[in-house]
Design brief:
Helix content: 25-40%
Shape: globular
CATH topology of the largest domain: D-Maltodextrin-Binding Protein, domain 2
CATH architecture of the largest domain: 3-Layer(aba) Sandwich
Number of helices: 13
Structural class: alpha/beta
Strand content: 15-25%
Strand order of the largest sheet: 1-3-2-4-11-5
Radius of gyration: 19 Å
Length: 322
């Protein structure tokens, strides 16, 4: 497993203003190798927000949201950065975790093509195109919901498998007409390749999935909700710092955490990502709405991705929201 470990206390001891006293350990796993959407969390580390909350943080990069849900469920980590659909699927299958915050109320998944080659003015414009998805991921769910919402037949689109990391290259090379992927990241990546994105956001077109937030193991939630609340407060402060100056946040995080994105791509992607999340200064940052969960769970059940009839309240809690 590709891992990028960061013992935050050791890093933060280099910063001025280290606080005395024993800190509580917390293990946090993010979804992938460090990307621009992680910069607010990384900023919270570099600016000392976890330390000020009395937390000794072990931060590690994962191999996808599904793996994060599994490892938090196994108590390998206390808290994980995941999408709400990944958390819901894991919880429905019996993984002992709960969603403790959602800071991105709507998914950023989109149908993305290259401007000038395709036109996505309406949902049915995808008919007849070669569409790339990564099978067995949220792409499959999103496509099923999108097709159902707009009455698009199973044979109306040529669906082709592609790896998550190959979507950009496949679009640029013309091997695919459109892909389902993170609209924010693909938009910035295409621009860096000298292309403009043609984009249809799925959240606005019949796909009621939520975006990123955090899960915690049930035992951690029961035994020490205050620790989780302090951790989320630190993350929220990191979001505020990153939003205040995305360029400075990227400049600090990229070399320290060996991010692959260029500085320009980091700033562009981070700025677009921050436009999709709850403002960190707004009341109720991270708080989850019952209506959002109900809509997402019903859609996932309709798509065959969720089994069981557990109540909505079984999936999440707002008890640790700062």
């Amino acid at each position: 497993m590709r891992r990028a470990r960061c013992l935050a206390l050791a890093a933060l001891m280099l910063l001025a203003g280290a606080l005395p006293g024993a800190a509580e350990p917390l293990r946090l796993l993010v979804d992938t190798a460090y990307q621009p959407h992680h910069v607010p969390i990384l900023t919270a580390v570099l600016r000392g927000h976890f330390q000020r909350e009395g937390i000794e943080l072990l931060l590690e990069a994962g191999l996808g949201v599904n793996q994060v849900a599994v490892l938090v469920g196994q108590r390998a980590f206390d808290i994980g950065h995941v999408t709400a659909p990944a958390a819901a699927a894991a919880i429905a299958s019996g993984t002992p975790i709960r969603m403790v915050a959602v800071y991105q109320p709507r998914t950023t998944l989109a149908l993305v093509g290259v401007q000038g080659r395709v036109r996505l003015a309406a949902p049915r414009a995808v008919e007849g195109l070669r569409l790339g998805i990564t099978p067995g991921t949220i792409d499959t769910t999103a496509l099923a919901l999108f097709r159902r919402a707009h009455g698009i037949g199973i044979g109306a689109i040529t669906v082709l498998p592609t790896e998550r990391g190959s979507k950009l290259a496949d679009l640029v090379a013309g091997r695919l007409d459109v892909v389902i992927g993170d609209g924010v990241a693909l938009h910035a990546a295409l621009r860096e390749q000298g292309q403009e994105a043609e984009r249809l956001d799925l959240a606005e077109n019949g796909v009621p999935l939520m975006g990123f937030g955090f899960v915690a193991h049930q035992q951690v939630l029961s035994a020490n909700p205050a620790l989780l609340q302090r951790a989320l407060s630190a993350v929220r402060a990191g979001f505020a710092d990153a939003a205040a100056d995305p360029a400075e946040a990227c400049a600090a995080a990229r070399p320290r955490f060996r991010m692959a994105a260029s500085e320009a791509a980091c700033v562009a992607t981070l700025s677009s990502f921050l436009a999709t999340v709850m403002p960190p200064g707004a009341p109720g940052w991270g708080r989850q709405a019952v209506e959002g969960w109900q809509a997402m769970l019903e859609a996932m059940r309709a798509a065959g991705d969720l089994r069981g009839t557990r109540p909505t309240s079984f999936y999440f809690t707002n008890s640790a929201v700062p």
